[in-house]
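Hi R.,

Here's the chain you asked about this morning:
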Amino acid sequence: MFDKLKRDTHAVIDLGVVLMIGIAFASLMVVAFIIYEIQSMLITTASGPEVNNTTANITAGFDNAVSLILVAITIFILAIAISALLMLRGQ
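And the predicted structure, written out as tokens:
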């Protein structure tokens, strides 16, 4: 079963790029979760606006980061699809 895969591995795209995109996606998810948890711990009724302003300053570029995550997911899916097509072409 795996003999054909071993023979056609020359068609596989460099997985380093795919892993790099996956690691970037995972790290952005972890950073977003950490910021969310810190904000929920710091907010009280008295300090709510101050914490919200501070978090807004920290996460000002997160809209761009979310857009980059969507682009990274798209590239990741395309890389997997192209890799599969190249493996099929090698048959």
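The chain has a mean pLDDT of 74.

Let me know if you need anything else.
M.
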